[in-house]
């Protein structure tokens, strides 16, 4: 399973876009990029995932570079409720049910 | 409402006692998982089960045991052999279509 590297922490002003980077330089062709977030003392919440195309849903956008070695999660208009730890995970498309969680990025949205 | 339930939210035990954490899901998911989280750390996989009556060890299975007798239930027993059992325990499940995992609210276990 490919490993991911994320900044330990980031701040973002309320109402501005939050851009959370993730490096996954050892990703292989069949591995998806998943993003989850964990609000303090709760279970992680699924946000979005993608293989190579950019993806958007009601929560966020996921931008994956052409070489797939890095990605960025974008929260377009951050609110105070988006303050959480964000995890970037790489997982194979088939054959494994395992995620490997790193320590994630602690995003603090400032009023 | 479909989802995953874990009970209780807080659990206190004396050292040397076994304790069982419950996890129930009504999402009709085949796969279920148990994770452990220590303060300031990410999640580490304890056990997972892809189908009823089958389960595999994760990265930190020592001192833990599980069973999967029903699709909806995946209880975790923290045995007295687990050297440092105080932690936040999270249960999750996933379907076969997208593999995204749905997490329960967690159980915070304190052993003194």
The main β sheet of chain A shows up as: 5 strands, mixed
Number of strands of chain A: 9
Strand order of the largest sheet of chain A: 1-9-8-3-4
Gross geometry of chain A: globular
The topology string of helices and strands of chain B comes to EEEEEEEEEEE
Number of H/I helices of chain B:
0
Please, what is the oligomeric state?
A: heterodimer
What kind of sheet is the major sheet of chain B? 7 strands, mixed
Assign the structural class of chain A, choosing from mainly alpha, mainly beta, alpha/beta, alpha+beta, or little secondary structure: mainly beta
Topology of chain A as a string of helices (H) and strands (E): EEEEEEEEE
Tell me the total number of β-strands of chain B. Answer: 11
Share of residues in strands of chain A? over 45%
Question: Which pair of chains has the greatest number of interface residues, and how are they split between the two chains?
Answer: A-B, 20 and 27 residues
Helix content percent band of chain B: under 10%
How many angstroms separate the termini of chain B? 36 Å
Give the C-alpha Rg of chain B: 13 Å
Spans where pLDDT lies below 50 across 5 or more residues of chain A = none
Q: Helical region count of chain A?
A: 0
Shape of chain B: globular
| Strand proportion of chain B | over 45%
């Amino acid at each position: 399973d490919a490993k991911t590297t994320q900044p330990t922490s980031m701040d973002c002003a309320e109402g501005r876009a939050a851009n959370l980077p993730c490096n996954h330089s050892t990703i292989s062709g069949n591995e998806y990029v998943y993003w989850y977030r964990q609000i303090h003392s709760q279970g992680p919440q699924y946000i979005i995932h993608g293989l190579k195309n950019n993806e958007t849903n009601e929560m966020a956008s996921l931008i994956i570079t052409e070489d797939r070695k890095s990605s960025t999660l974008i929260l377009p208009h951050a609110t105070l409720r988006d303050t959480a730890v964000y995890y970037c995970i790489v997982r194979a498309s088939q054959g494994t049910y395992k995620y490997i969680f790193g320590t994630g990025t602690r995003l603090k949205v400032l009023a | 409402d479909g989802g995953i339930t874990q009970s209780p939210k807080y659990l206190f035990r004396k050292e040397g006692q076994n304790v069982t954490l419950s996890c129930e899901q009504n999402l009709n998911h085949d796969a279920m998982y148990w994770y452990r989280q220590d303060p300031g750390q990410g999640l580490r996989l304890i056990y997972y089960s892809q189908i009823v009556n089958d389960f595999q060890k994760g990265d930190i299975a020592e001192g833990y045991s599980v069973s999967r007798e029903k699709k909806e239930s995946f209880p975790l027993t923290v045995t007295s052999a687990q050297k440092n059992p105080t932690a936040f325990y999270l249960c999750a499940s996933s379907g076969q279509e997208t593999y995204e995992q749905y997490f329960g609210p967690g159980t915070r276990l304190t052993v003194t």
